[in-house]
Records
---
Amino acid sequence: MGFFDSILLGFQVILDPGNLLFCGIGVVLGTMIGVLPGIGPTTTMAILLPVTFRTTPTESIIMLTGIFYGAMYGGSTTSILVNLPGEAASVVTCIDGYQMARKGRAGPALGIAAWGSFIAGTSAVIGLMFVTQPLAQFALRFGPPEYFAIMCIGLVAVTYLAQRSVLKAIMMAFVGILIGAVGVDMMHGTQRFTFGIDELLDGVGIFPILMGLFGISEVLENLEQNLGSSQIYQAHVKNLWPSLEDWARAKWSIVRGTILGFIVGLIPGGGVTLSSFISYAVEKKVSKHPEEFGKGAIEGVAGPESANNACTGGCMIPLLSLGVPTNVTMAILFSAFIIHGIAPGPFFIKAHPDIFWGLIASMWVGNVLLVVLNLPLIGLWVQFLKIPYRILFPIILLFCLIGAYTSSNASFDLILMAVFGVLGYLMKKFGYEAAPLVLAVVLGPIMEANFRQSLVMSQGSFIIFFSRPISGITFGIAALLLISTIVPFVKRRYKKYQEFKD
Amino acid sequence: MAYDRWTSLFWLALSVGACVKSVFLGIGAPNKPGPGLVPFGASVGLGILSAGLFIQAMIKKGEAREESLFTGKNWRRILFTILAIVIYAKILPLMGYLVTTFFLMLFVFWLAETKKWYWILFSSLAITGASHLVFAVWLKCQLPRGILSF
């Protein structure tokens, strides 16, 4: 199929009323949860995953992806207007966005965030279109050792980029591998860690884990506090179209943010939050007026907002071409593919061109919808902040319960969800992150299969992981990442020891 | 963190348990890896890092503040919510989705300190009904009907 035929196929798919409806639902929900603090795109995707059981694979993937990039648009609105980031990727937008709003320039800040997001989002889709196919072709050369190496670097990178303790993040990855090992071993048929519970023979379902660690734990954490409504911005927002001067200042920030966000998305472990933080740092570094940052510099809004939107396109490439989710959000999308019996990876585009090109076209249509929805309806989105948590939390709780139950039609999964909910809540309290654990649960069984196949291939020689160029280089990078984490720690301890000795 | 020494001990105990269980499962040989090989590796890794975290926490014992993470928090609400989920899981197959969910919603709205009883009743009915329409009728999910057959 030629390039233009593929594009036409994509638009044919997205213009199907059902697909268009789910694209609309996805971006509207995404914007809404982007606005609402206390619930992020990852949680929403996890909670709504069971909704996709009865929909077609194309509708499911289009809706979940819409939630992901829609949240990036919505997050900027409350960051700018009320200094309240709806999701983590918009934290950095608060710094200059809110200062602009305080100076009466909320309109241009919202305008540049929306247009920057649109430019970056659509550019990333072009990148996704051109990079995925060649990478999938290249991935045909991969065998079990290469896949094992890529998954290892994915896990190492997620722990390396942990927001809290790297040590705890690695520990959580090991716990995730152990949870992923529960059930019947595929190679020997032996029961592992089932403790005589029949429901565990198929392993611990990913849905109770996702609902528990993200949905329930977030509900429990919010229940600690007062459940009243938030104070909301009352002023009227004017001049949403940025001035020529604003455009002149922001244009290169948007370009840099787009490129940077796209590249960060490609890196294992890279995510939307990281991309926006790096972009902000870069903008401050290259700016001729770094002193204006933190006081309402438009570049500080344009760069990060472009970066997090470009990142959404970038991080889909490893998933679609290699079949490797590089962050927890992609792990949820990976689960959505698996539910429908579709294996993302080198054969995905060839086997399901309608889903791939439909997804590409949906991201274009979705980005257009988001600009149309976001700019004129800003007043409406801000009103969502009025919804008190006492109304929201029973709904979130119910979605989690339905999600966990319908995944297997067994009430045992509800108990499992409660267990993971408590675990997730305690993990938050004690400074452990859920992302490495979830990624390890998803990747663990695939990693294990590839690891054992590699050993069988090499007749027990571990050299196979280092003698093949792709896996050797990948392991080299993973080792460097680990060493770069350990060395500063050892240096700090040694310095303390020296001080103590003196 | 002040609690690291306790949490590290928990993970250490878990890793020891998983390690022993993995050995019983059979680690195998490099050319014929057994079902316990990967869990063994993961539990050893977890054990070493937990021990490291424990040592780190003991060294920093004096520096860390010992304030409770639960002081001033509404932990009763958390406890009741978890209990409600467990009871819901037990009753759901027997009483069916509509009845069980309605009572759960009544309870959580009450828990959320919603003042007016008619608002609690209306919200619970509306959410239960709407969720049934979306999931059971529109998306055709198999929600349990229970002994009352609805």
Note: The helical segments of chain B are 4-25, 37-59, 75-95, 97-111, 117-138.
---
Amino acid sequence: MNKIVTLLAAWLVVGAAAVFAADAPGGPAVVEARDFPNDAGGSITVSWPASPLETGKDFKAYEVHRKGPGDAAFAKVGETAPGELTFKDEGLQNGARYEYAVYAAATGQAPANLGSARATPRGQWYNTDKTNVLVGIVFVVGIIAFFILRAKAGATLFVRKIAGLEAVDEAIGRATEMGKPILFVSGLSDASDISTIAAMTILAKVAKKTAEYETPLIVPCYDPIVMMVEKEMVREAYTEAGKPDAFEEDSVFFITQSQFGYVAAVDGIMVREKPATNFYMGAFFAESLLLAETGAATGAIQIAGTDRVTQLPFFITACDYTLMGEELYAATAYLSRDPLFLGSLKGQDWSKAAIIGCLLIGTVLLIISVDAGTWIATLFKTAAEGAG
Amino acid sequence: MRREIPLAICLIMGVVMTVQFFVPHAASQWLFDNMMKWLIIIAIFALMLGLLNLIKIHTQKVINRRKDWPYSIVALVGVVGTLITGFWGIGADSPFMVLYNYIQIPMQATMFSLLAFYIASASFRTFRARTFEATLLLIAAVIVMLGRVPLEKYLGGQWLPDLAEWVLDYPNMAAERGIMIGVGLGAISMALKIILGIERSWLGGGEKG
Amino acid sequence: MNFFDKFLKIDRRYIFILVAIGVVIPLVFPLGLAVTVSPPVKNVYDEIESLKPGTPVLVSVDFDPSTEPELGPMTAAVLRHCFKRKLPVILMNLHPGGPGLALAISDKVAKETGAKEGVDYCFLGYKAGGTAVILSIGRDIRLSYPADYYNKPIDQIPMMKNIRSYSDIGLVVTLSGSTFPDVWVAYAHERFGAKIAAGVTAVMAADYYPYLSTGQMIGLIGGLKGAAEYEKLIGVPGNGLKGMDAQTIIHLLIVLLIILGNIAFLLMRRQQRRGEQTRPSGA
């Protein structure tokens, strides 16, 4: 706990330093040219003080002139409107030295030279604007690593009961008793989606049980790569259960990557095969209610789990058990009770606690003082690339 | 080696792309540009894989006369027919667009519209005020449903749409944000486990190291 | 089985018939209900209104035919608005089901408004890869789209001459029935500072309010109602406004079914409790 507090404090200090190190407002006292920070190079920012001519009605613009390597004289490269005291010059050669001169141009007068400055554009190897993201990653990874090590050292980590996962064995048992198949739908996303990976983990557990009880398993797949992975997983599960010959090649099959074509096919399977148990795990979209209602109409027990918040209400109304959001990701840890997975689950929870803490501190600070509250919000702000 | 090589690739690329995020240098940008090109190429090959798999499964069903094999012929005719018409041309009046506009669009729109019927039957069947929370849910649902249709004239003014907008702007948004944060952290944890090789279910057959 | 029990277990097909009648009747006998505009939709409209003529807008048609009834009308309304404001539109798709729809809608709106392909809009087509495409546009749109949908090199398209990345684009509008808006915000906005507006199905609209409140999205058009509101703002009625009557009747029907179901449930529960109270103990 002390380590977590220390890490959080370090994060706040680093962030505060970044915020307070920013330039003072009002512009520089003389013309300045600097390499544009946090980019791949090729850009220089020129800034200058406001000219007294700016307040006059004849003032036109600030002109920026540049002399690069091999140039005999200065040439105009841009101009800015009154009040704009910076100019970003792009498309330059990294490592080359450039000289800039700034003029205030007014009608009927020779341009007033405000001064000159030199700079060399370079690419940076580290984007300082992303320091808060780095600190955040280090913090979250650190907490997860801490709890994994604690779990490996033998500490007991409490995880609350998740009804949907507790019911998996009961649901499989029901299908075995009734002599009917189990339908497992692993979502409508590809293998790069984390919810699909979580669904595949649950499928491995379900497949091992169905192998032991010799209950038919039907796994229609939306994505061909997911199908290939799941086929191997189910085959392995049957081998581990000591029944490799019981594995049916056609039990895991690809249907289509068309959303409603897939749903139509799965609904048809439900109505024809009448599975006793339906699992819906993974990423679902508008078709979730079509699947769940059809399954309910066939009288199957249904366990769903998705991280797609918009589909949770449909599953909650139509299914017997629903895993909501992170409960789906927790399935690996919950079902295996492995220290590595349990540790990462605890790490997640403590990271969330830290975020809640920051939210509370920020809310209180905002109530006390807008500036103080804005400061803490700035710590979490991410700058777009090339914003400087 | 069958498992070690993919794990090594996953670890190296996971770390490299994480570091790349923080490095603005031109070398890092070059790496990023090329990775994006490779990602797009892999995504295209995944589509091809799906198509070949579909053809293989249905062809085997027809050859071996498995259950419902006539429907596999329909599926194969659909796939091959669409492919051939696609090679002919994809302009506005082409046979491909005719298939798309008069078969694909009506079929998919019809399937989606089934939701209206299913929502009505699911609402009637399951929306019961059994507990305090269920009653709250019901009240919020009625407010938002009535607030999102143009009935202001009959309901005494703008108060119901404004209330519906308030429900979406505050309670709904707070809950969504909370779930988003949780899901985001879960995703970080899962990604970390995958990169470090702790989570190996994606390899197929086996869970962890 | 008493009346309430029978009512609660009514065959769902009777409900389906009621829904069918509720949808068809307003389409045949329009009610002409007036729509009021909500702030998220107004924000999208105001943003497009504020863009100077000639500022490119990237419109990503990321949906397939299943969500066309909700998202098609808003796509048409946004395109009409852009063409009216003389904002060149770059059309693209991240969803494989999208190109046909994008073509059909853009052709129709272009014919009505006199917009010219290559000058007022161009169609880049579908590119697989989703996130990779969004990220690569941040570097150079030519990385993902060296040519348009018709294989014409992008540098030969007049309107694309000075457009390289998000910094040359005034607004990105993503119209999607899936989670593409999350990806646009996470990558195009957070990484490259692009302004994002989204048009989504009604069921997904609730998901994106957090992005509205943080300013990561400048506006949101949600569902058929959102499309109807946008059509009202641009003054060109379309399928959005036409569909509001049917949507109103169905919403009222569902609310009525919920209320009747709960009344029957509560009365049945009361009856059961009375039955338990009057039954002699041990019976």
Note: The domain at 31-119 of chain A is CATH 2.60.40.10 (Immunoglobulin-like).
